[in-house]
Specification:
mainly alpha; single chain
């Protein structure tokens, strides 16, 4: 289908954006930064069109649901939220150096969705438990939270790259924001992700009660979502109450992102009501 072809092209656009961001950091020429931004923006628009076309195709097939119902569609949407959030941040901060750390994640997610063996790319009807408007609100808020945590993770990696630079840093390091700015951005992204994840857990609980008659059942996905929520709650509390900054915050963004990945991917290996995602 045409939407699958478009999404394949988007994968290469995100890779091109990463390479252009890297060229900017290595060569110091803003031309490459503008090219990277345009590549990422065109990729995001094309991906949005592909998602709409896939949504329309589901209606043409008689199913009629948002493209958020299986593992393939969730990967595509995850990459979309990451690039959307990053481009909004770039526009607000007027700083393109973060892109070299964020775009590789979006590219790898898209590449995995395209080439992973056994990946089901077909549009299929929803199982009865998923036939609810709560599906869209739950998935949207969760993945916006995941996207914010992904950007926070990228900033954590950036912080350590900046921190380990020698006394005479090269052009790449000099183009990065200051350690103070990176720290503030890590906190802001983690706080934003925490808000969205909280909304995701709440909407998921309401949906669970609607679908299965219980707000909480200690399903592996629910349990690890709670663990992830607690990790970021501790991080934000320590920031406000104990004054955690810098290295500690960077470590927590990496640990938290590890929990996000396990919540999203790892629990699919366990018996779960969310096993449809596999």
């Amino acid at each position: 289908m045409i939407h699958t072809t478009i999404l394949s092209g988007v994968t290469f656009l995100y890779f091109a954006a990463f390479v252009f961001y890297l060229f900017r950091m290595m060569l110091g020429r803003e031309f490459w930064g503008k090219a990277a931004t345009w590549a990422a923006l065109i990729g995001l628009v094309a991906q949005s069109v592909a998602l709409v076309l896939r949504w329309k195709a589901s209606y043409d097939l008689g199913f009629g649901h948002a493209p958020l119902s299986n593992f393939y569609e969730s990967l595509i949407f995850f990459a979309w939220t990451i690039v959307l959030l990053y481009l909004l941040m770039e526009r607000r901060l007027k700083n393109r150096s973060i892109g070299v750390f964020v775009l590789p994640v979006a590219f790898l997610i898209m590449a995995y969705a395209s080439i992973a063996p056994g990946m089901n790319q077909r549009i299929e009807p929803l199982i009865p438990a998923l036939q609810s408007n709560w599906l869209t609100s739950h998935v949207l808020t969760c993945f916006m939270g995941y996207a914010a945590f992904t950007v926070a993770f990228a900033l954590g990696i950036m912080y350590f790259v900046k921190k380990t630079a020698g006394e005479r840093p090269g052009l790449f390091i000099r183009l990065l924001p200051s350690e103070f700015q990176i720290d503030e951005l890590m906190y802001s992204c983690a706080a934003l992700g925490f808000i969205f994840l909280t909304l995701g857990i709440v909407t998921g609980s309401v949906w669970a009660h609607y679908a299965w008659g219980s707000y909480w059942s200690w399903d592996p996905k629910e349990t690890w979502s709670l663990i992830t929520w607690l990790i970021y709650a501790v991080m934000l509390h320590a920031r406000l109450a104990r004054g955690w900054r810098g290295r500690r915050m960077a470590v927590m963004t990496i640990v938290g992102f590890g929990c996000v990945l396990f919540t999203y991917l790892g629990v699919n290996l366990l018996p779960s009501l969310h096993s449809y995602m596999t």
